[in-house]
C-alpha cells in the first residue's frame, strides 16, 4: 500500500516538475499563418511546370510523369507546335489525389516538372484542387537554370537543324563516297 | 528433335531452326535486332552473341551469333556467359553512339525494341565523346514519319519493304557509318504494306504519322482484340483508344491469318470512327427537318415495323449478329442482301463451292505455302491486300526448294536469296490491266472479264486432257506453260473472286481447281469484296435479290424498309433506288456514317463502328472470328442488333441464337469465351497495368471520379483490374512481357516462334464440313459488249478509295485518286482523249482518263470510288471529253506500273 502511494505520488510530482521546467523554455510552435516557417528548397510540395532558358515550355508531353505517378493523378495529351516541338495540349493534375511523392519530378526527362516548397493548397471546394497547365506553368526555369532539352536532343525543330544539337556533326551527304 | 544445352539446362529443339529462334521459342531472353521471325537471319547486327562449347569438357568456348548458328543436336551454348554478355553490351554501345537522345519526343518510346535490348544487354552510359553522325529526314507521305538519326542499321526495313513486300522505293544508301535508309528522293512510300515498317523497325526511324497527331504511349491505350473490316481477309488487329477517341491500329498476331503484317488500308483506314460525319443520335426526318427521337418513339417505331410486313436489307459490312437480328425482325422472306445482284449471284456460287468436296479454301498461311498460283481476274492487291502479300511469299517456295537441295537452311535469308536469284515458283495472272504482282509473275494475260474467263476455261479443258480451240498462238503458248506449271505443282492454288461480278470467272476457276484435285481437295481461294460478305450470304438464299426488294418497295407492296449499314446508291442503279425510297412510307436506316441513303431516310439510327462493339465476322475462307469492343462510342450509337431487338438481347444471347437458329453458323457460339474459363472468374482488363491518369483524365468535369464503366456482357472489363492477357493469350490485345515492351514480346505468347498463340484460337471455319460433290461447269463463251464507239467495261479497285468506310478517313483520302477510266493508247488516240482529261461515261458520270499500256483494246477499266455508281453503267460505255472537272486531285498519286509514258 505504502509503496503504491509512494510510486503514484512521486510520478505525478516528477511529471509536474517536468511541465513546470518548460515554462522557461522558448516555444517551438509558431504563430502560423501569421508567422511562416522556413521551407527548404528541396521540400516536396506543389508541382510547377517550368520554362527553358529561352522562355519556351519545357514539358514535351512524354507522359513519363503520368505513368510514374502512383495515384495516377496526372493526365495530359501530346500536341505538336508548328516548329516541331512537342507540348502538352492539356496538362492536368488532381491535387486532391497527389501525395507529393516527387516521382513525377524524378521521371521528368526535361526538368519541366519541379516540386516547390509550397504546401498551402487547402480549398473549400474539392473541384478547385484540379489544376490545369495554365495554373501550373511558371515563367522561369525553376531550380535548373541552364537545361534546354531541344539543344541536347537530336530532334529537329525550326531554328535548330539536324547536326546543331549538342555534340552533333553536320548531316552526312548520302551521295558522297568519301569516308 | 534435337537436344541442346543452354547454360547447363537441356532442351529439346527443332534442328531445322537457328539457335536464336529456338532460344526465343523456349522463352529465354536473348537480345537481337536484325532477325525477324518472318524474314530469317542475316547476321547484320551482331547482337545475339552467345558462347558455344565443343563438348562438356570445353571450358573456353567460342563466341557465335545465335541467329547464324543451327540448333544442331548436342549444341552447348551459354547466354549468361560473361564474355558473351560483355560482347552484347559493347555491340549495343557502338550501335548507340549516334543515337539522338530524344526518347521523350519519340513515338516509339515505351514500345521500343532498342530500349528493351539496351536494358537487357546492360549498356547504360555513352563513353564515346566524339560527335554524333546525323542525317536529314525525308517526307515519306501521309502515313509514315522518318527520323533517320535513330537508326541502328539493322537493315530490317529494306529487308521487309523490298525483299518481303516487293517495294521498289526504299533502299539502303551511302556506306559505312553514313548508311541511310530512305527513298531516292522525298515522296510517298508507294508499297501497300509500308505501314508495317512502323512495327518492323526496332527503333523509331519509321513511326505512325496518323497516330502521332494524337499521340499516346502504348501503356495508356485501351485495347482489345479486334478484326479488321477493310476487306474479306479478316486480319487480326489491335485498335487503341484514349480519352474517348480511337488512336491507332496495329497488327495482332494470328498464325493462320495475317501473321505479323497488315496492309495500309487496315492500319490507317480507321479515322472515320472519330469523324464528324458519324450519325450522332436517333432522329426522325419530317419535311426535311430532323428531330431527335425519344425512347418511347423508338419503341413504338420498331414494334410497328415488327408487326407489319417490311423489307430488311442486310449489309456485308455489318456483323453477323446485326444481320441475323434484322432477318429475325423482318422474316426470312423479306430479308435481302445489300449486295448488287450480279455480285450476289457470284457470292452464292462461291458459297456452294465452299461445300464442295473437291475444294479447300486455304488460309493466308496456306496461300504462302503454295508452289504454283493461278489468279483469275481478281486484283487482290487492291481487293484483299494481305492475300497479295501472301502470294508474293508463295513465289519464294522455289528458293526454299533450291536451298533444301543445296543443304542451305531456309532461315539463311541472304544465302537463299543469293542462290535463288530470279528463280521463282510459277505465278500466272489473268487481269484486266497490269497488276501490282506482275513483277513476280511468270506470265500475265490481259483481257476483258469475258476473255479471261474464256482463257481460264481453256486451261481447265487442257488440264482435263482436252485440246481447247479458238486460241491465238500466243495464248496457246501461255496455256501450255500454265498447264505444265499447275500439273507439276504439289500445292497448286487457284485464286479468283466476286469483285467484278463475273460468274464465268469463278466457274472457270472452279473448273481448273477441280481438274487439279485428286484424293486431296485442291486449294481454291475465292475472294469476297467486304469484311462480312460471307456472313451475310450465309443468311440469305440465292433467290433473295436486292433488285427484287427495290421493286417490291417501288410498287408500293410493302409500307417500309429497314436498311442496315448499306448505302443503296453503291449497290443498285440510282433510278431504282430513287423509286424505291420515294415510294416507301417508312425508310429506317441504321448506319455509322451519313451517306446518300441516310439523306433520304425517314428515320436514321447511329450504329457502332467496328471498335465500339463486340461482334463476329466471317472472312473469305468462312473463318468466323470474334472482335471485342475496344471503347465506348462518343455518339449515341448502339450495335445494329441492339436497336433491332429493342434492347432485349445481349451479345451472348444473340450469338447463341444465331448459332442455334441460322444454318451454317453452328460453331459461332464456340467463339465466345466464358468467364468460367478464367482464373477465379476474373475479367480480362482492356487497360494495361501501367494505364495512367485515371484520377485526373476527367477531373476537369468532376473531381469525384465515377465508377469505371461496367461491361456486363463481355469477358473484358473497361478497367486495369482483372487477369491480364499474359496468363491467357486467347484474349490478347496488346502484347507485353517483362523486359519486352515492344511488339517483339509476341514470342512470349507463341507456342513456338511463328506458331499458334498459347491457348489462343484462330477462329472457326463455318463451312469446314464438305457435303456436296459437284461437276465441272459448262464453259460459257462470254462475248464482249464492245462496239466501235463503246468500250467493254470492267471495274478497277484501289486499296485506298474502294472500301466505303476507310475512304472517309483523312489519311487515306490523301492517297486517293478521283474516279478514273483507264483505256488503251490506241482507243485513246481513236477517241482523241489524252491522259488526265475529264471524260463523261455514257454522257453522264465524269471520270479522269488514264491511259495505260497493259489494257486490251476495246475495253476500259473504271475506278468508281464514291464518285460514280458503277451500277448505272452498262456492260459497255461510250467516252466523250467533257469540260466538267472532279473535286479531288485527279490521278496524282495513282500507283500503277503501266501508265503510258509519252502522254503522262
How confident overall, as mean pLDDT of chain A? 92
Number of strands of chain B: 39
Number of strands of chain A: 6
In terms of DSSP E residues, the strand content of chain B is 15-25%
Proportion in helices of chain A: 10-25%
The ordered H/E elements of chain A are HEHEEHEEHHE
Low-confidence stretches of chain A: none
Please tally the helical runs of chain B, counting DSSP H or I stretches of 4 or more residues: 25
| Spatial order of strands in the largest sheet of chain B | 16-15-27-26-25-17-18
Keywords:
heterodimer, A: 179 residues, alpha+beta, Alpha-Beta Plaits, three-stranded antiparallel beta sheet, two-stranded antiparallel sheet, 5 helices, elongated, B: 904 residues, alpha/beta, Ubiquitin-like (UB roll), Rossmann fold, 5 domains, seven-stranded mixed beta sheet, 25 helices, 39 strands, 18% strand, globular
Can you put this structure into words, describing what you see?
- The complex is a heterodimer of chains A (179) and B (904).
- Chain A is 22% helix and 16% strand.
- Chain A has 179 residues and is an alpha+beta fold.
- Chain A has a domain at 47-152: 2-Layer Sandwich (Alpha-Beta Plaits), CATH 3.30.70.3270.
- In chain A, strands 2-3-5 form a 3-stranded antiparallel beta sheet. A two-stranded antiparallel ribbon of chain A has the order 1-4.
- In chain A, a hairpin with a 5-residue loop joins strand 2 and strand 3.
- With 904 residues, chain B is of the alpha/beta class.
- Chain B has 5 domains: 2-95, Ubiquitin-like (UB roll), CATH 3.10.20.740; 106-114 and 130-273, no CATH class; 283-288 and 304-345 and 535-670, Rossmann fold (3-Layer(aba) Sandwich); 358-520, Dimethylsulfoxide Reductase, domain 2, CATH 3.40.228; 791-881, Barwin-like endoglucanases.
- In chain B, the strands form 9 sheets. A 7-stranded mixed beta sheet of chain B has the order 16-15-27-26-25-17-18, with helices on both faces. A 7-stranded mixed beta sheet of chain B has the order 38-33-37-34-36-35-39.
- In chain B, helix 20 (546-554) packs across helix 21 (574-583).
- Chain B is globular.
- The model of chain B has no long low-confidence stretch (mean pLDDT 92).
- The interface between A and B is large, with 51 and 47 residues.
Amino acid at each position: 500500500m505504502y509503496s503504491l502511494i509512494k510510486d503514484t505520488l512521486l510520478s505525478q510530482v516528477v511529471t509536474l516538475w517536468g511541465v513546470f521546467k518548460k515554462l522557461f523554455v522558448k516555444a517551438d510552435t509558431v504563430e502560423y499563418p501569421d508567422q511562416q516557417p522556413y521551407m527548404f528548397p528541396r521540400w516536396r510540395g506543389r508541382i510547377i511546370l517550368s520554362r527553358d532558358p529561352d522562355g519556351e515550355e519545357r514539358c514535351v508531353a512524354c507522359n513519363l510523369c503520368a505513368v510514374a505517378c502512383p495515384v495516377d493523378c496526372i493526365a495530359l495529351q501530346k500536341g505538336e507546335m508548328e516548329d516541331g516541338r512537342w507540348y502538352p495540349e492539356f496538362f492536368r493534375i488532381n491535387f486532391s489525389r497527389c501525395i507529393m511523392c516527387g516521382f513525377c519530378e524524378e521521371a521528368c526527362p526535361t526538368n519541366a516538372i519541379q516540386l516547390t516548397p509550397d504546401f498551402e493548397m487547402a480549398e473549400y471546394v474539392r473541384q478547385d484542387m484540379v489544376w490545369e497547365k495554365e495554373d501550373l506553368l511558371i515563367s522561369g526555369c525553376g531550380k535548373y537554370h541552364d537545361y534546354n532539352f531541344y539543344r541536347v536532343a537530336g530532334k529537329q525543330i525550326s531554328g535548330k537543324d539536324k547536326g546543331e544539337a549538342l555534340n552533333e556533326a553536320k548531316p552526312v551527304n548520302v551521295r558522297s563516297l568519301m569516308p | 528433335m534435337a537436344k541442346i544445352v543452354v547454360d547447363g539446362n537441356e532442351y529439346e529443339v527443332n534442328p531445322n531452326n537457328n539457335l536464336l529462334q529456338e532460344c526465343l521459342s523456349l522463352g529465354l531472353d536473348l537480345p537481337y535486332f536484325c532477325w525477324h521471325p518472318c524474314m530469317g537471319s542475316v547476321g547484320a547486327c551482331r547482337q545475339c552473341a552467345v558462347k558455344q562449347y565443343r563438348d562438356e569438357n570445353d571450358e573456353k568456348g567460342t563466341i557465335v551469333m545465335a541467329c547464324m548458328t543451327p540448333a544442331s543436336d548436342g549444341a552447348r551454348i551459354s547466354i549468361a556467359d560473361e564474355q558473351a554478355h560483355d560482347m552484347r553490351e559493347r555491340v549495343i554501345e557502338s550501335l548507340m553512339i549516334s543515337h539522338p537522345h530524344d526518347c521523350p519526343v519519340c513515338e516509339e518510346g515505351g514500345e521500343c525494341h532498342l530500349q528493351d535490348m539496351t536494358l537487357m544487354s546492360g549498356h547504360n552510359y555513352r563513353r564515346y565523346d566524339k560527335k554524333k553522325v546525323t542525317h536529314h529526314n525525308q517526307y515519306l507521305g501521309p502515313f509514315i514519319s522518318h527520323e533517320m538519326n535513330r537508326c541502328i542499321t539493322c537493315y530490317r526495313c529494306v529487308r521487309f519493304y523490298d525483299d518481303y513486300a516487293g517495294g521498289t522505293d526504299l533502299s539502303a544508301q551511302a556506306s559505312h557509318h553514313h548508311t541511310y535508309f530512305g527513298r531516292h528522293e522525298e515522296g510517298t512510300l508507294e508499297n501497300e504494306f509500308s505501314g508495317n515498317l512502323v512495327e518492323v523497325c526496332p527503333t523509331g526511324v519509321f513511326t505512325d504519322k496518323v497516330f502521332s497527331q494524337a499521340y499516346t504511349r502504348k501503356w495508356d491505350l485501351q485495347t482489345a482484340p479486334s478484326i479488321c473490316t477493310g476487306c474479306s481477309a479478316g486480319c487480326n488487329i489491335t485498335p487503341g483508344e484514349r480519352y474517348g477517341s480511337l488512336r491507332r491500329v496495329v497488327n495482332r498476331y494470328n498464325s493462320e491469318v495475317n501473321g505479323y503484317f497488315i496492309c495500309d488500308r487496315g492500319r490507317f483506314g480507321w479515322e472515320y470512327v472519330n469523324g464528324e460525319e458519324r450519325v450522332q443520335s436517333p432522329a426522325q426526318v419530317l419535311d426535311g427537318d430532323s428531330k431527335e427521337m425519344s425512347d418511347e418513339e423508338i419503341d413504338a417505331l420498331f414494334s410497328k415495323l415488327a408487326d407489319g410486313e417490311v423489307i430488311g436489307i442486310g449489309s456485308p459490312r455489318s456483323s453477323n449478329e446485326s444481320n441475323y437480328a434484322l432477318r429475325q425482325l423482318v422474316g426470312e422472306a423479306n430479308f435481302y442482301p445489300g449486295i448488287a445482284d450480279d455480285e450476289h449471284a457470284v457470292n452464292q456460287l462461291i458459297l456452294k463451292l465452299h461445300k464442295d468436296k473437291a475444294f479447300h479454301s486455304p488460309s493466308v498461311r496456306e496461300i504462302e505455302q503454295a508452289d504454283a498460283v493461278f489468279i483469275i481476274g481478281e486484283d487482290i492487291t487492291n481487293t484483299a491486300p494481305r492475300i497479295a502479300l501472301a502470294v508474293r511469299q508463295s513465289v519464294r517456295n522455289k528458293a526454299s526448294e533450291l536451298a533444301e537441295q543445296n543443304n542451305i537452311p531456309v532461315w539463311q535469308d541472304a544465302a537463299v536469296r543469293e542462290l535463288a536469284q530470279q528463280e521463282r515458283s510459277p505465278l500466272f495472272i489473268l487481269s484486266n490491266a497490269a497488276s501490282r504482282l506482275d513483277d513476280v509473275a511468270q506470265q500475265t494475260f490481259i483481257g476483258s472479264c469475258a476473255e479471261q474467263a474464256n482463257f481460264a476455261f481453256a486451261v481447265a479443258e487442257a488440264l482435263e486432257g482436252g485440246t481447247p480451240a479458238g486460241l491465238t498462238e500466243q495464248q496457246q503458248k501461255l496455256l501450255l506453260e500454265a498447264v505444265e506449271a499447275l500439273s507439276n505443282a504439289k500445292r497448286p492454288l487457284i485464286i479468283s473472286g466476286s469483285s467484278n461480278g463475273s460468274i464465268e470467272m469463278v466457274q472457270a476457276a472452279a473448273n481448273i481447281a477441280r481438274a487439279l484435285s485428286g484424293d486431296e481437295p485442291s486449294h481454291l481461294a475465292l475472294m469476297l469484296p467486304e469484311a462480312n460478305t460471307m456472313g451475310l450470304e450465309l443468311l440469305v438464299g440465292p433467290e433473295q435479290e436486292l433488285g427484287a426488294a427495290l421493286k417490291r418497295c417501288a410498287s408500293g407492296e410493302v409500307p417500309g424498309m429497314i436498311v442496315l449499314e448499306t448505302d443503296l446508291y453503291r449497290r443498285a442503279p440510282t433510278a431504282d433506288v430513287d423509286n424505291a425510297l420515294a415510294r416507301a412510307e417508312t425508310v429506317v436506316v441504321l448506319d455509322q456514317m451519313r451517306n446518300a441513303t441516310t439523306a433520304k431516310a425517314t428515320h436514321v439510327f447511329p450504329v457502332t463502328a467496328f471498335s465500339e462493339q463486340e461482334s463476329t465476322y466471317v472472312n473469305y475462307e468462312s473463318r468466323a472470328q470474334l472482335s471485342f469492343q475496344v471503347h465506348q462510342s462518343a455518339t449515341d450509337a448502339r450495335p445494329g442488333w441492339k436497336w433491332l431487338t429493342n434492347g432485349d438481347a445481349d451479345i451472348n444471347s444473340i450469338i447463341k441464337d444465331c448459332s442455334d437458329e441460322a444454318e451454317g453458323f453452328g460453331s459461332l457460339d464456340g467463339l465466345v469465351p466464358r468467364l468460367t474459363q478464367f482464373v477465379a472468374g476474373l475479367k480480362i482488363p482492356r487497360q494495361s497495368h501501367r494505364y495512367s491518369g485515371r484520377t485526373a483524365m476527367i477531373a476537369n468535369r468532376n473531381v469525384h471520379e465515377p465508377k469505371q464503366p461496367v461491361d456486363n456482357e463481355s469477358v473484358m472489363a473497361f478497367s486495369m483490374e482483372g487477369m491480364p492477357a499474359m496468363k491467357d493469350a486467347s484474349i490478347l490485345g496488346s502484347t507485353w512481357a517483362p523486359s519486352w515492351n515492344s511488339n517483339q514480346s509476341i514470342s512470349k505468347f507463341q507456342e513456338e516462334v511463328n506458331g499458334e498463340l498459347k491457348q489462343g484460337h484462330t477462329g472457326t471455319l463455318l463451312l469446314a464440313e464438305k457435303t456436296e460433290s459437284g461437276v465441272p461447269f459448262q464453259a460459257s463463251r462470254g462475248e464482249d459488249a464492245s462496239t466501235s464507239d463503246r468500250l467493254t467495261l470492267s471495274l478497277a479497285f484501289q486499296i485506298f478509295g474502294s472500301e466505303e468506310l476507310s475512304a472517309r478517313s483523312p489519311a487515306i483520302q490523301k492517297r486517293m485518286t478521283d474516279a478514273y477510266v483507264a483505256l488503251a493508247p490506241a482507243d485513246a488516240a481513236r477517241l482523241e482523249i489524252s491522259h488526265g482529261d475529264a471524260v463523261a461515261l455514257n454522257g453522264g458520270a465524269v471520270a479522269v482518263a488514264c491511259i495505260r499500256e497493259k489494257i486490251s483494246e476495246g475495253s476500259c477499266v473504271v475506278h468508281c470510288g464514291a464518285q460514280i455508281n458503277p451500277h448505272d453503267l452498262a456492260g459497255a460505255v461510250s467516252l466523250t471529253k467533257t469540260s466538267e472537272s472532279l473535286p479531288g486531285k485527279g490521278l496524282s498519286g495513282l500507283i500503277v506500273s503501266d501508265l503510258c509514258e509519252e502522254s503522262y
